[in-house]
Design brief:
Strand content: over 45%
Order of helices and strands: HEEEEEEEEEEEEEEEE
Helix content: 10-25%
Strand order of the largest sheet: 1-2-3-4-5-6-7-8
Distance between the termini: 62 Å
Radius of gyration: 25 Å
Structural class: mainly beta
């Protein structure tokens, strides 16, 4: 028991820094949301990077785009100093933000205020662009090109192969899963896939007559 009493304080000493680090909020990312101004809500966005505690990025509103010149975190509250121009005059301001569930909430002070701000993290676009794809057609490799464009969770685009070009009629990208229907001249083609190690991997259904696997790699 005496040995245990000596070990417990040491164990607690090691755990405390780990717990503090785990509680430290991560604010880096791309956000979109609203600022509640006196004449109504306006759309705003924040693109923030964190390089070992050195913050940089941009804040954009209908009034203009401001550069993040300094940032610091204290008690899980992020304070950003921003600078920009308005009517050819230099303008500075401050943002204070804290995490609330999946959002950043706080206040913005530029030319008065403070103005309430609410921002939501925007997931990175991992699928827009051209993909080199291959489908397994009963043991034969069938190459095609898939062009995708993401807008929120909706996916548009087209596919081209030796059989021609097909347009995406419906498409959804959510939680790392792609679901697309292509309108081909010979019937609809359904594509399902997950993004795994930078590749789209999944199953296809060709007009209910042929099913199989397919894989795609994004063009550089």
């Amino acid at each position: 028991m005496k040995g245990l009493s000596r070990i417990i304080p040491v164990f607690a000493f090691l755990i405390i820094p780990i717990a503090v680090c785990a509680q430290q909020a991560s604010f880096a990312g791309k956000y979109e949301g609203t600022a509640k101004e006196a004449d109504g809500d306006v759309h705003v966005s924040l693109n923030l990077t964190d390089d070992s505690g050195k913050f940089s990025g941009t804040f954009t509103s209908p009034r203009g785009t401001y550069t993040v010149v300094k940032g610091q975190i204290a008690a899980n509250v992020l304070t950003l100093d921003v600078a920009g121009t308005m009517n050819n005059d230099g303008v500075t301001g401050t943002m204070t933000l804290r995490q609330k569930e999946d959002k950043l909430v706080g206040e913005l002070s530029i030319l008065g205020g403070p103005t309430p701000v609410e921002l939501r993290r925007v997931a990175p676009d991992e699928i827009s662009g051209e993909w080199d794809a291959v489908a397994d057609a009963q043991g034969q490799a069938f190459p095609f090109t898939l062009t995708l464009k993401l807008d929120g969770e909706k996916v548009a685009g087209s596919s081209s192969s030796q059989l021609g070009t097909s347009q995406v009629s419906t498409g959804i990208w959510k939680d790392g899963r792609l679901s697309v229907v292509l309108d081909s001249a010979t019937g609809p083609i359904g594509l399902l896939a997950t993004l795994t190690d930078g590749k789209l991997v999944g199953d296809y259904d060709y007009a209910g007559q042929l099913q199989g696997k397919w894989v795609a790699v994004k063009k550089k």
